[in-house]
Amino acid sequence: MTATDVAPAETRPLKIGGSFTVGKMSQGRILALAAAAAPADSDDPVDVAIRQALAAQRPDLVVPPSDDIDPATPERRYSLSMVRDFPINDDKRCDVVVMRGNLDDVCKKVGNSRKDRSVIRRNSYWVGRRDWRPLAVATAPVGEGDQVGDFTMHGFIDVGLEGVSRGLDGPNAGDWVHVDVWSLSLRFQHWINVAMIFTLSCTGYLIMHPFFGPESTGVDQPGFLMGWVRFVHFAAAAVWVVLGITRVVSAFVARDPHLRWTEWWPLKKKEDLKNLGGVIKHYALIDQDGPLYLAHNPLQQLTYMALYCACGLQMISGFALFSLYHQGFWLWEIAATPVHWFGVPNIRMFHTGMMFALWMFVIMHVYLAVRADSLERHGGISSMINGGVWLRRGSKPVDAPEVG
Predict the structure, then answer these.
(1) Which of 16, 47, 196, 375 has its CA 20 to 30 A from that of 130?
(2) Over the stretch 176-226, which tens digit does the pLDDT of each residue have?
């Protein structure tokens, strides 16, 4: 492609590349809020692009006209618009004031949590890296006597020039929508984790029971096979520890909300306990359908929380055994504390038992993943390769906005 194949920036129209949401409002409704915040006859390129995107992606959403617009100024880089009878969801309409404009200015006025603000800023950073600009959208409820409440950020819309690739697809206009769930970093961690658990299990079992090679014959000069096996085991353990550290760090700083620790912390509210029963009934084939979750349902959250604890204990017991050969250094003396408390045989038995427990989890994990994908047809297995699942437009996951 040459420079003449793309129109100059000043003559190229704007387009909407997608949106990022926090809370329960869908991408389509955020787009509708952004459209409602401008006059219906506005010829501003941003307003035109938003109306075109809304017509293409959510033609079912009728945007009520705004009856009072306070435009942005150089000192206040966001507009304020009174929108009457806006469809917040399928069952509720209310009057709201829409704040639309520069992300930094809007963030200073909203009352979202620190976690939401952190996730929004990290995602907006990567949008800017792709030469797009985030257009923030927030609302405040309007009560009796037109009293305006506190503003809440719902997310932002990606605005860019026609011909600039966003690197991500916007919502589909069909009945099924491909929803991005798992980030590239999480998928990378997942498959490295699989490789390390397999390597550690195979070499660990051979160290425990050398069933082949010179060591299994009991000869006086068995060779150095076991030395290589131990080296591979220790090297894989080091990679596994680094992987665990990166996962813990990402749980607090990741821009993907599904990587945050709150997403796998189980039973945060009473609704989760109720949905846990629904998930168990669905898995036990008592109920045909269970609660819809985009990421992890409560049973998965409990399982992964237990898995992370188990992996942490496995790392501690492994370092305790390894430290027995390095007692001359204070760090290894601390690492050997469990051995001093419980004895070498007990720690070895625990370390071996945890290996078999992890493999029990792997077997159940593969079975349930195949079963869920077969029953729900959402592409859950392939999501660990391409990062997304397929959901029907209008689906309402418990842990995510309405789809579409």
Answers:
(1) 47
(2) 677 788 888 888 999 999 999 999 999 999 888 887 766 555 555 556 788
